[in-house]
């Protein structure tokens, strides 16, 4: 979803990526990153990190009782 080259500039490529993200979440698709969009971006990043973090997956799979021994 991110542009290939992150520049820190809100160019057409970035605005189009924001609009696509907004449409996927059924938000107002105006290309403006308001508080609601920002919150959803944070959630999406957190989910991606959780889904792709082998150490976190292992920790979550452990039985907490085993850790108390």
TrEMBL record:
SUPFAM superfamilies per UniProt: PGBD-like (SSF47090)
Domain Peptidoglycan binding-like: 4-41
Pfam families named among the record's database cross-references: PG_binding_1 (PF01471)
Top-level division of the source organism's lineage: Bacteria
Protein's name according to its UniProt entry: Peptidoglycan binding-like domain-containing protein
Lineage: Bacteria, Bacillati, Bacillota, Bacilli, Lactobacillales
């Amino acid at each position: 979803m991110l542009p290939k080259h992150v520049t820190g500039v809100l160019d057409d490529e970035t605005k189009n990526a924001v609009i696509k993200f907004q449409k996927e979440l059924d938000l107002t698709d105006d290309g403006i990153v308001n508080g609601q969009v920002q919150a959803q971006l944070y959630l999406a990043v957190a989910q991606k990190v959780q889904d792709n973090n082998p150490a976190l997956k292992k920790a979550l799979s452990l039985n907490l009782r085993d850790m108390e021994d």
